[in-house]
Design brief:
binds pyridoxal-5'-phosphate, 4-stranded mixed beta sheet, 429 residues, 7-stranded mixed beta sheet, alpha/beta, single chain, Aspartate Aminotransferase, domain 2, Aspartate Aminotransferase, domain 1
């Protein structure tokens, strides 16, 4: 059998080096996966608590979903949107049913990047204004526009610069000026938004776009009244609100289908990808009827609405409904959050443990201060892998560990994972 090392040697010859895998000199070369487990090509089994970046939402090669994917594959694989298939309509109906407020009309594509492109296009055509305001530490994807919307240096490549994107302060309470309360951090954010509109625009904007919880930014959870205070300013400037639910969607934050519902506000446009399709390539933009209808002219995505992707995604969402995974996210998320809180109190290398539902993070610092510690973050994720647990990294400074198990994770796996996290923390402290 070919070894991991041999495959990596070939990989480096034929792949762009920017697609750097995790785990440095010892990357994980995957052979297969089932439910919560991944096996490498040497036959070692890992408990997956990152799900291909919050994407394999209800288990690898989930039997119930795979069966429906296979059935669709044998029936109708592709037509593009020049013809209609019912499964696409059924999925759009389901998304409209489960999303809040007046969100009703969908555009399907293949990725979060495309979903966000579509959202910005719709906002610009609806308002007749090009300016989009988004948050520092955001991650929106990898097209030129999406990289412009993103506000983390490592993810902005190639001289990217959409002239109409403005970034404002994000509600990152842990890294706000020392001593500020959550309420004062929101005050600062409000002030920055008002100043940006007053000084960096003509007073009118197309959209304010935000992830309810910043994902790649390191699971940054805004204070309770953040969106309620931001949105009136956005509306006053004529803008619509785009909620990027690519990471927070589909129950992950616990108890609600969409992350933004925890903040009691209604977006005008929402975008989804990742966990929506349990690993099939999907992007979805849903908008209010009047915004969707404003996208006049010709646009299409060859694979958007692909019947196999639609069937897999519908099966995924129906599986979530049948197993009430939003409730499981709330329950298991509470257990994980309690454990991580205990670890934060015990280990000074943890600056903060935070999160919501099954979107939990630990931010590493040099003990006794606030200085981000990226080296210990890498060591921690590698140590967990050696102990059989897969986790993710994130944060502008590369010092946040993201823990995001499958939405149907059970007690036993959660306990095993938390034991490994505890052992790795003790080893590295
Ligand atoms: C919040 C958010 N939006 C958009 C994207 C882009 O999605 P994709 O990689 O599917 O293009 C990502 C990817 O990580 C994301 O986390």
């Amino acid at each position: 059998m070919t070894s991991s090392a041999a495959i990596m040697d070939r990989y480096s010859q034929v792949m762009f080096p920017a697609t750097t895998p995790y785990h440095g000199d010892n990357p994980l070369v995957v052979e297969r996966a089932k439910d919560q487990y991944i096996w490498d090509i040497e036959g070692r089994r890992y408990l997956d608590f990152f799900g291909g970046i919050l994407t394999v939402s209800v288990g690898h090669c989930n039997d119930e979903i795979t069966e429906r994917t296979m059935a669709q594959l044998q029936k109708l694989q592709h037509t593009s949107t020049i013809y209609v298939n019912e499964i696409m309509v059924r999925l759009a109906e389901k998304v409209a049913e489960l999303t809040p407020g007046r969100l009703q009309k969908c555009f399907f594509s293949n990725s979060g990047t495309e979903a966000n492109e579509t959202a910005v296009l719709a906002a610009r055509m609806y308002t007749g204004n090009p300016v989009v305001i988004t948050l520092r530490h955001a991650y929106s994807g990898r097209s030129m526009l999406a990289m412009s919307l993103s506000a983390q240096r490592p993810w902005r490549l190639g001289g990217v610069n959409d002239p109409y994107v403005r970034h404002v302060r994000n509600p990152y309470t842990f890294r706000a000026p020392a001593g500020l309360t959550a309420e004062q951090v929101v005050d600062l954010c409000v002030q920055d938004l008002e100043e940006t509109i007053a000084t960096g625009t003509e007073g009118r904007i197309a959209a304010f776009m935000a992830e309810p919880i910043q994902g790649a930014g390191g699971f940054i959870v805004p204070p309770e009244d953040y969106f309620k205070r931001i949105l009136p300013i956005v509306k006053e400037a004529g803008g619509v609100f785009i909620a990027d639910e690519v990471q927070t969607g589909w129950g992950r934050t616990g108890g609600k289908w969409c992350g933004i519902e925890h903040w009691g506000v209604e977006p005008d446009i929402m975008t989804f990808a990742k966990g929506m399709g349990n690993g099939s390539p999907i992007g979805c933009t849903i908008a209010t009827p009047e915004i969707a209808d404003a996208v006049q002219g010709l646009t299409f995505s060859t694979f958007g609405g692909n019947p196999v992707t639609m069937a897999t995604t519908l099966a995924t969402i129906e599986y979530m409904e049948a197993h009430d995974t939003p409730r499981n996210c709330a329950e298991q998320g509470a257990r994980m959050s309690e454990k991580l809180g205990e670890f934060a109190a015990e280990f000074p290398i943890i600056g903060e443990a935070r999160g919501m539902g099954l979107m939990q993070a630990i931010e590493f610092v040099k003990p006794g201060g606030m200085e981000p510690d990226a080296a210990i973050t890498v060591a921690f994720v590698d140590t967990c892998k050696e102990k059989g647990l897969l986790l993710g990294k994130g944060g502008l400074y590369g010092n946040v560990v993201r823990i995001a198990p499958h939405l149907n994770v059970g007690d036993e796996d959660m306990d095993i994972a938390m034991d490994i996290v505890a052992a790795a923390l003790a080893e590295l402290s």
